[in-house]
Specification:
single chain, 284 residues, mainly alpha, MetI-like fold, 13 helices
Length: 284
């Protein structure tokens, strides 16, 4: 209850949470929040402006160059952003945490191999490596999630390895070893719980990065297929109309910016709330 009260008093964090909840509501309730089909094309209604800018109430956010309703595409596009953002972070977290715990526990050549692979991944710009993987694997929702997970696991591996190195000689770990607990039991029941707070904070902040990366890949034409509404595709499709139909790229661009902002604001609050040192520094 105290934490909920602190969240309500923090206007930025509460606003971020509201944005996240609204995005989830839009994603889940998309078929019920609009009577329009996101893929229905009507060239007679192309580039209709928003309702408040001289358009019609039928297309209150306007239409794009193919006459598709921007409001419907915005709602259905939120599904891709949320699914990719959450899935890529969860998979990267699972892979990175498992590898990091093993590297910290065993050390030696196992740690060296895992960390050198991580250094190799970090040697490439994040988006460039994701672009390369998506190009090799092909577009599609699953392949984008795989590519973003393959490029995002290193940060979790480094965190898990550092924490395991710090805790593997502590009393509770030694006690577990003395009673014959297996390595898997020690890592899962004793090592992992001590990482959860840090993993939650980093994972929340990384969701925004994954959403932005997915939109960037779709903007470059190697992401989600055109048959699936996607915010990055909507921005790319509106490039040619930015001067005569500004709403076509602006509406999805604002949606991306607001969702990423909301995730980052809430993630910053979680970092301050769950990390005592960060909370103390923020109070000062």
């Amino acid at each position: 209850m105290r934490r909920a009260g602190r969240l309500r008093r923090n206007a930025a964090a509460f606003g971020g949470l509201v944005i996240i909840v609204l995005a989830i509501v839009c994603a889940v309730g998309a078929p019920y929040l609009t009577p329009q089909s996101p893929n229905l094309q009507n060239l007679e209604q192309r580039l209709v402006p928003p309702a408040w800018f001289g358009g019609t109430s039928r297309h209150w956010l306007g239409t794009d160059g193919l006459g598709q309703d921007l409001y419907a595409r915005l709602l259905f596009g939120s599904r891709v952003a949320i699914v990719v953002g959450v899935s890529a972070v969860v998979i990267a977290m699972l892979i990175g945490t498992a590898l990091g715990l093993l590297a910290g526990w065993y050390g030696g050549w196992i740690s060296a191999v895992i960390m050198r692979i991580g250094d190799l991944v970090f040697a490439f710009p994040f988006l460039l490596l994701a672009l390369l993987l998506v190009t090799l694997l092909g577009g599609g929702l699953v392949n984008i999630i795989i590519a973003l997970s393959a490029t995002g696991w290193v940060i979790y591996a480094r965190l898990a390895r550092a924490e395991m190195l710090a805790m593997k000689d502590r009393e509770f770990i030694q006690a577990a070893r003395s009673i014959g607990a297996s390595t898997a039991t020690i890592l899962v029941r004793h090592g992992l719980p001590n990482l959860m707070t840090s993993l939650m904070v980093i994972g929340t902040l990384e969701i925004g990065t994954a959403i932005l990366s997915e939109a960037s890949l779709s903007f470059l034409g190697v992401g989600i297929p055109p048959s699936i509404p996607d915010w990055g595709q909507m921005v790319e499709a509106g490039r040619d109309y930015i001067y005569k139909a500004w709403w076509v790229p602006t509406v999805p661009g604002l949606a991306i910016a607001l969702l990423v902002l909301g995730v980052n604001l809430f993630g910053d609050w979680m970092r301050e709330e769950l990390d005592p040192l960060s909370r103390s520094a923020a109070r000062k």
